[in-house]
Amino acid sequence: MTETGPMIEVENLKKQYGDLVAVDDVTFRSKPGEIFGLLGPNGAGKSTTIGCISGLLRPGAGRIRVMGYDVVTEGPASRRRLGVVPQELALYEDLSTRENLMYWGAAYGLRGTRLKQRVDAVLSVAGLADRAREPVRKLSGGLKRRANFACGIVHEPAALLLDEPTVGVDPQTRVRLLELVREQAAGGATVIYTTHYMEEAEKLCDRLAVIDRGKIIAQGTLPELRSILGERDVVRVTGRFDPLGVPEALRSLPDAELVHAADDVITLAAPEASKKLSDILRNLAAAGFEVRETTITQPSLESLFIKLTGKELRD
Amino acid sequence: MRFIWTTFRKDWRRRWRNPLEILVWVGIPLIVGLLIVLAFGGKGGPRPQAHVLVADQDDSFLSGLLVGALSQEAAGGFIRAEPVEEAEGRARMEKGGATALVLIPKGFSQAVLREEPASLALVTNPSERILPGMVEEGLSILVDGSFYVQRLIGEDLRRFADGPPAAADTFDDETIAAFSAKVNRLAAELKGYLSPPILRLETSVDRKEGDGLSPGFLLLPSILFMAILFMAQGLSDDVWEEKTRRTLRRVVCSPQPVSAFLLGKTLASAALVFIVSLVALSAGYGYLRLSPATFPAALVWATLSGTMLVAAMTALQLFVSSQRAGNIVSLAIVFPLMMAGGSFFPFESMPSWLSAIGKRTPNGWALEKLKEIVLGRADASGFAASLAMVAAVIALLLWISSKRLNHGFAQD
Fold first, then answer.
1. Which of A109, A243, B51, B312 could share a disulfide with B98, CB 3.0–4.6 Å?
2. Is A241 on the interface with B (CB under 8 A)?
């Protein structure tokens, strides 16, 4: 592996629970200093992918390497280079933050002075130095989140896995956590960041993979992903429709691409949609459909997700 | 190896920051044990003695004999007689200050000697159940005895009770000598029957296991293993705590083997079992004045077998579907184990079939071994073999638990 080569390589990963395919042929790579986002709704397969990389879950098929170490055949070596920040708090509440950090640092092989130095450094970075000796149970939710993050980075991992670390977090703590993530990447670590918050992914991630129902449906930098939309707006119309009759109703509007049609909602992609909205609504009314509400979305990850899956990310 | 020590220290700290939990594990068995010891009379204590107040209004030779006979050693020392005035005796009985009050009315002696109706009054304390019965029985025997004496030498006694002839101040020497000779002859004739008795009652009681051991001794290992079982149940629940707090996932994601983590936790539990055993055995050895020579072996055994129980309960917790189910299942197992395994009731007080089953439970087996060790009945080779077996079982249980943690429990 070269210095700029992939830190984490996931190739054709598959994970199945009985008949349910949680992750299906997922492939991606992340480089040093890069924040790689896994974007998808709940149940898309993001956490399962993180679980397989971290060694928590055994991949059903495919291959995962962390800095060249296979997570299955060279588990301890690969795990030693990984830091994991789970979505839920994973702390001993009756121990202090310092004691938690000492324990998890030791779990990753840190000892003696080096361990103490790292714990002090991480406490300072996370803004927990003055509360370090208090039991975790006495900390506020936001401080617990920071402590949870600190436990994942205490051993200076080369690769950091963050599984929706900002879920249920107050805005102030979210900003602080995102700063910490950027600092890790700036320090040369690769960060795999799962989220279902579009704006978070847009602001934070250098590259992204959009995942739905276990499959990666798009992957690239933000500009690359936007180009998939071709700078077109997404028009979402709710009402009463006949899905089979909608294409015929829009035949006279060649710029409007029908993305998705259902009984109660249709989704279109069109350049400068606001200027074409009156034509779209007229055609739909002429076809006998009832229109209740219309929304136009500028090109974004949200609109990309809608275009790719026909549904909103939060659905 | 270092991670085992780190995990040990982590769990040790966590345990001592929740002292209430430890107090409950140890406190409940202590309270139960204390109640049982009190109910069964502890290690012996003073022998119960009936305190009998005697109001002797007759104040005669015969009434004096009666009072003396009540409290003599032949009564087994169970009765202590105290002369009182009737009013004082009744007042003290009102306050429950004695077992019984015997009233010997004036003229009692004359009535007995003249074969006239005579009565003794016995007032018993209703708050005592057994001792008043003993007093009543003792008094009844004395009354029967006086009847036979009266049959044998009643005529002579009556003559003496009537006093010397009117013309004389005292009985003449010849009369006294004749009476003495008669009493002596009677005693010589009866001696063959009374001393030694012709009828010898030989009693033999089947010696039950545990006879000769005080209830306090029998309860020492019982209480200790009750505490250990409570600890095993509580400590085993910690794998669910680690799971629900997601710390177990962090461990699985770390480069350390899960077996090292589990071993560290088990050692922390073992240290706790050691501390509790040390305190319980020290108190027990001191209170019961047991030979300190067996103390180290008893401590080692209690610690290791207790650790085995913790490891077994932990393995069990890993195979149930939820923390709640784990609590229910472990309690459903722990209480029958306590009952049958000699923790609530010593084996010595159980029917033989039940104690046979109980001694085959893990805690019952360990408890019996502990008794043997404490009494110095365990031989060195047998002790070593038992230790090796327990160590092997712990190793097996840890292996099973590690497998389960790695494949399913942490990930579910």
1. B51
2. no
